[in-house]
Amino acid sequence: MKIFYVIVKEKGRGATAERISSQCEMISHCADTTVLKLDENTGFSPYNIIKVIKSFSTELNNSKPDIVHIYGCWNFIAACIMNIAARKKYIVAYSPYGGLHYFNRKDKNFWKVYLPKWIAFQWYMVRKPRYIIARNSKEYNQIRQYNKKSSLVIIDRELSDNEITERLQKRYQQITDENVFSFMKENEIKSFFVLLRNGVDVYVDRNKNRMQLSQEKIGRQTSREEISTIEQLEEIEIKRIFLLAEKTNVSEYIINGARLYINRNGKFEQHIKNVQANDDEFTKEYEKNDNLVDLIKTVRKNIKKKDNKAILRNLISIYLLIKYKDCDEEKLAGELDSQKLTPFTSRIEAIINELLFLEEGYMIVPATNSRKTRALKNRIFDSMK
Known about the structure:
This protein has 385 residues and is of the alpha/beta class.
């Protein structure tokens, strides 16, 4: 794990900054860490801003951290650094670490002393990060006054440095697990969708006693290159695949697919045992969704909401409905056209074709591979992050 620390040494709070530096040094024994320190002199000076930001950008590109953790809130350059890290799609964690006691809306002199909230960089720093770590319950409540959405936990400053370090490590691991898709390599993502595709097709007909796919059928669906990639997956890569499956609510399909490859890659076996999945989920998914138009509307709504627990299941439901249920294709195409869903459906079919191998002969409308299709696929992938 790689952590990039930005520590703000605020005026009169040198001891706090030194304690944070000591904790970062302790974490460096079990993680790859980079530390950038800012003091009260690195403020609004244009020269300082350009110099520090340029140095930070270079370090960020070189270290490519998993998490950028910023301590302190009374430094404009720290706010700029947070913005750069967020724009470059790095995960940002933030700890005000006591700085918010200056930042009290109930103080009658607040508006005279500090800038209005709509131009104050401190407001940005409190409200922008996805992950915030408070040092006590008082700070937790202060943060919640300004930020209702971010994931917020307390790591009490009264704990010993060893205990704080241990809890920080656990928190970092939770954050990386939640954002597992961001850390997956191309071969892992491809393997995830190969397993998903095979897993969805494992049980396709209840009248055949839900027979498992034969190796011959897998061979027709999966290329030699894809099979070879799955065979070469390492332990940590398989772990990330199963974490993503859990996050996107498709564990039972990934398990079904992984069972087919146990003889080819024995590392799957332990992960299959560790994951509890409901084998009846397929039946529920297969039987409860019989209206393609409603499903198309649902997936469009969930993509807008970035609902990572629903989107892949929606795509699977559409795949099952199109491929395995009898329907009047002309009537469906007319209904989709009357509700102006044809362009969106054609893009969704192209994505399902790529991810789940939906053949053209099953499609209700011709698939469209266009710039908008690629943009839609990127939005689906963004929702998985």
